[in-house]
Amino acid sequence: MFWWGEGMNGWGYAYMSVTMVLFWGVVILGIVALLRHLSRSGQSGGAGDLPRPTAEQVLAERFARGEIDEQEYQSRLAALHGAQQTTSRQ
Known about the structure:
There is one protein chain. The chain has helices at residues 10-41, 55-65, 70-89. It is mainly α. Helix 2 (55-65) packs antiparallel against helix 3. It is rod-shaped and about 95 Å long. The relative contact order is 0.05.
């Protein structure tokens, strides 16, 4: 520590203070990142675990909200059933 003469000068104290703040900042950021990672991986039943709605469910929701009328709902439902039958035959 006393290699440069009679102790540290002002620049030595400044360097030591800056490196201490950087060190503790990195430690704190590492702990926060670790906690976030663990909290994400430990979640069960999150939005990513929900099954995607089927095409019929989406169509029924649109009909229930009034976005499409009954005629359009029936024609699209028939088209879905026709598409499902042709894909199940292949």
